[in-house]
Design brief:
Blueprint (H helix, E strand, L loop, with lengths): L2 H13 L11 E2 L13 H19 L4 E6 L7 H16 L2 E8 L13 H13 L8 E8 H10 L4 H5 L4 E5 L18 E6 L6 H14 L3 E7 L7 H6 L2
Parallel strand pairs: 1-7, 2-5, 2-6, 3-4, 3-5, 6-7
Length: about 240
Amino acid sequence: MSNIFNALEQARRERHKGDISSPCKVGVPDKNASIGSGSFSDTSTDSEVLNMFTTIQDKLNEDRWVMQLVSAQIGEGVSFVAKRFARVYAESLNKKVLLVKLIARAAEADHEFSKEWQEVAKRIEERNSGKSEHSCGDFVEVSMPFNSFFKQFKQDSNSIYNIKRCCDLIIFDTPSTAIEPNSAEFARYVDAVLIVLEAERTKVFAVQSLKDKIKHNSGAFLGVVLNKRCFHIPYSLYSKLH
């Protein structure tokens, strides 16, 4: 990323210092970059992610909570960001995290994707029972079909609380609304929603449209994560996301 972007990011932090109600925006750098090789090292990025989590948790005032990551278009790197967030939250804060990747158009009969919540909870408990009190946090990753999972939530929105008892944070890696429009409505069942943006090809109106849809369904929208793995985010687009 350019020095211009770094300056903009620093200016944003100064403007919103102490303002926990402002939308969170955090940069996630190239996953292949080595520490110190660029303006955002792995260490500094983890610190920003951790600060973001602290800000969100202070705002929510919840010990156990649920986050959704979603994008307006495919190819924004949502899964990459979700795994990074899960790892940082688990290891830095010694927390138990469940990362759920929801698959668009997955075969309903595929048992690999059709685990019930009870089975997931059992898996988490088994992982937790084998850890000592002084061990680092951990995250469990599972995959499920979006449609059947979303249908279950609509039928019983309280089902998520069975899992919240087993872990500190649930992160839903949801499909892009370009291929699964109901991902915007999924925001009704979570505590916090972040849009992931990476590619230049994603037009600002697409991001704004997704923000409007999320806000229509829920008050959980917090902001935009700029995933800077591959593309430079043009200033004209970045400025409109503030």
